[in-house]
Amino acid sequence: MKKYCTFYIVRHGVTEWNKLKKIQGQTDVPLTKEGEEQAKKAAIEYFNNIHFSSVFSSDLIRAKRTAEIIALEKGLAVSASKLLRERSFGSFEGKVEPDIEKEMRISIAELKALTDKEREKMNIETDKNLWLRFVNFIREVASVYLNKNVLIVTHGSLMSVVLQKLAYITKDQINRLHIGNLAYIILLSDGVEFEIRETFGIFLDN
Question: Would you identify the CATH topology of the domain 5-204?
């Protein structure tokens, strides 16, 4: 029987910029009190009966703090990695939709639908780069934790790229994709093969 590591890939709790609908990217925005409560609730309601061998997170504070709150309930430490960071949105970070449309002459829908070549021209990190750094991380961790559970706390754009690359959604569906705070993907991998086993808090808007 083939051995896999089971990854629980979780989006961080809510931030003030989430509420204001500002693009965060790699700007280091902290959790709100509500975000901390979301993480505490997830630790009890979602992950209470799951034994994690290790906990990893993006090094951005909103993800790291979410991971720390969940890990505290498990008595585990958190290892942070830049490989799990949100996409860099360059000059778009900190802006809301009306500002983007006025200053950049592009809608949020168009921004999400950019090709990687278009992203490069606008100094936005590509899907290819997000996927490569994620895969590099998964390959290294999976080999150490075969037949074990690992928690990863990361960000919405990285999770959406994972869903696209593994054919869970199509490129055309990206504008309808909703990944809630503390939503998660259960991913099986041995570092070579990848299988999405389940998702929670992730859906396509009508």
Answer: Rossmann fold (3.40.50)
What would the two tokens of residue 132 be? Answer: 């490569």
AA identity, residue 30: P
Q: How confident is the model at residue 171 (pLDDT cuts 50, 70, 90)?
A: confident
Distances in Å between the alpha carbon of 152 and those of 18, 122, 182? 20, 29, 11
Q: How many CB atoms lie within 10 A of CB 147?
A: 12
Q: How many CB atoms lie within 10 A of CB 165?
A: 16
Determine if residue 177 is left, alpha or beta; phi over 0 gives left, psi from -120 to 50 gives alpha, anything else beta.
beta
Residues 6+ apart with CB under 8 A from 54: 76, 79, 141, 145, 148, 150, 151
Say if residues 61 and 55 touch (Cβ distance below 8 Å): no
Single-letter code of the amino acid located at 141: V
State the DSSP code for 189: E
Q: What torsion do the CA atoms of 101, 104, 109, 113 make, to the nearest 10 degrees?
A: 170
| Residue listed under structure tokens 């949100």 | 86
Q: What is the token pair recorded at 128?
A: 């290819």
The H or E element that residue 162 is part of is helix 156-165
Tell me the per-residue pLDDT of 110-165, one tens digit each, with 9 for 90 and over.
998 899 999 999 999 999 999 999 999 999 999 999 999 999 999 999 999 999 99
Residue ranges covered by each domain of the chain: 5-204
